[in-house]
TrEMBL record, chains A, B:
Gene3D superfamilies: 3.30.70.360, Zn peptidases. NCBIfam families: hydantase, PRK09290.1-5. InterPro entries: Amidase_Cbmase, Bact_exopeptidase_dim_dom, Peptidase_M20, Peptidase_M20_dimer. This is Zn-dependent hydrolase. Keywords: Hydrolase. GO terms for molecular function: hydrolase activity. Residues 209-311 form the Peptidase M20 dimerisation domain. It comes from the Archaea.
Amino acid sequence: MTLRLDRDRLIATMEEQATYGATEDGGLHRLALTEADREIRDWFRDQLRAADLSVRIDEFGNIFGRREGSDPDAAPVLLGSHLDSQPNGGIYDGVLGVIAALEFIRTLDDKNIETTRPIEIVNWTNEEGSRFQPAMQGSGVWTGAHDIETERTKTDDNGVAFGEALDNIGYRGDVPAEPGTEYDAYLELHIEQGPKLIEADVDVGVVTGIVGFTWGAVTFHGEADHSGPTPMHHRSDALVAAADLITSIRRIPGSLGEQTVGTAGYINAEPNSINVIPGEVTVTWGFRDPNDEVVEQAYQRVLTEAKHAAEREGVNYETEERMRAPAISFPDRPVNAVQRAVNQCNYQSLELVSGAGHDATHLTSVCDTAMVFAVSENGKSHSPDEFTSWDDCYKAATVLANAALELANDVTE
Amino acid sequence: MTLRLDRDRLIATMEEQATYGATEDGGLHRLALTEADREIRDWFRDQLRAADLSVRIDEFGNIFGRREGSDPDAAPVLLGSHLDSQPNGGIYDGVLGVIAALEFIRTLDDKNIETTRPIEIVNWTNEEGSRFQPAMQGSGVWTGAHDIETERTKTDDNGVAFGEALDNIGYRGDVPAEPGTEYDAYLELHIEQGPKLIEADVDVGVVTGIVGFTWGAVTFHGEADHSGPTPMHHRSDALVAAADLITSIRRIPGSLGEQTVGTAGYINAEPNSINVIPGEVTVTWGFRDPNDEVVEQAYQRVLTEAKHAAEREGVNYETEERMRAPAISFPDRPVNAVQRAVNQCNYQSLELVSGAGHDATHLTSVCDTAMVFAVSENGKSHSPDEFTSWDDCYKAATVLANAALELANDVTE
């Protein structure tokens, strides 16, 4: 039997959360560990308590709510995402996953449904990574990918330490930031942040994994001469080499894979004056693909293209790979549970690999993990233009709930 | 008979001036109307007085020293350049022209040589345009190209007005900033700031004019999406369009003229984050050529290339021409005087068109103007690496002196 959520309550709760850190253009500005984050955390903690969940806050600020199962010793099913936003972000990103999990619990209570396994909801601290880096910081600490003491010393642009900011908003909890027990599964609902679902005209996305990526930078060193009297054949123009590389970064994905993407997102030129030939320019690369070998090929290609660009312009260069993350493939068990929930609801779905990282990335090291994607109407995110219809929010939440319900009652091990 | 300058005194005076605003790496940091500028002005005024010149300072801070001729009513010959420098500039740029003029006067005094025409030396205020824009401000006001009251209100990066800064260093003089009388000729000695003379292996440059130029900017408007989940075919990447245009700007001169140069010196990308597709990018163009028609062709070409680059990437764009200056051709009379001085000294010379603007640009509207270029050893300027050997300083100064002497005695009108 399919579990039906309360659509009106889901919408009302989404609208209520969107009032904390609301911007004039209908978006959210709710950076991690700011006053707006404290307010949404207070509100969220109250909602957990109102739903009779036992609330615990760990020493990194991750907030958990637990609903006991009929077998309190069974490994729990964990559901959640994040309540923080990008600067001037949208009202769905992350939050929808937390509110959907809350609506699931409320519905179980409404219908007096008991599950075998305990169910926990989580709000991970600082998923966005806008104010403090890295992104997915709370889940990274909790799963042991990052050291908590190191992360507490990270500072924002104003020199405020993460630990200081967390203490200031009163969300340094007393529970260790670690699983502490075995978990059965983690399910995360998130908006797609891309156009694949809307283009395929489906109801919901079944996420089978997360792409791998390489991030890095190339710095070209030329000669900063006066732009007037220096003949063209005497120039070593660092910006021309960088431009050459940027157009290569645009082309590389087209010769690698259907799902490969490549971006030059950042550029800095020195001295950056209309009247001076640029002497030093740094440009970044980012390549993503579901296949680690393709990511490696993209990395090798950008190194080759940087070399060619430097040679063509007669400049020196250096490269620095800043980050490499392997592709993640979710295990069959939770993915199949999501797919069965889709079928049960008679929804149309698309299997896809997430092009962005999520807290689920870290959770894969702790337990069976999968994700549900809600349709992004225009493929946009991190912007007030981000939009998912209430219908699509409801469908994705319903899939999450039914998949979670199956997992929470499945104790055949 | 060729006039011989005092080589040792010329060098000593160049070395002495270089102590005002000296940087640790042997360069100069002597921005207009700063304390270092006040000090070099005090020193220069003392040198003029010591040479028995009558000193006058105009209300825009331009400093003049006058040596009377045997016919005090004859139109004077004006010699000079500027004592201010770029941030971390070199010790020759501009200054050599002022010191060479001073050495000429001193030599005339040593040898008791009287000229028919009066001779005046000038230090123009703020040639560099680093602290206050535009460049060549003092000569621009003096020749009537700019309005003095408007220029006095221009502010530096700290909001200090030009007029306030000029008053603070005590160099707002009481003479109107205008010629006031007819001038016979203006000669300016400057380092080349390019490699043409050193490549031609000559002693000195005979400048026949100044290139024309167009300066402007193109802004591309794309879509700032998340760099992960946005497929390549969904992107409108403003930085890719800008990169496309930059490589075009590098190529355009090669299809226009032997002396055409083109530069993209400035770029700004938004939001400029490794993880976001650039949504808005501005890049500047600068094209120069001795022929105005070629400058116009370059302008039309950059507009066409901006259109193509925008179309290829599917972004919008807008262009703005910020400045257009016609090419200047110096009249034969002063150019021939410079060439005769070269021949008289048995020097090898190259005729060339200045690729950079100079105070001489403005002086052409007032009187017959020409320039002498000293060899730049590595073609560099606006840098502590700027270098002209004392031999080359002496040769260029000697040519300036002999050309000026001829003009100052030529009253056949």
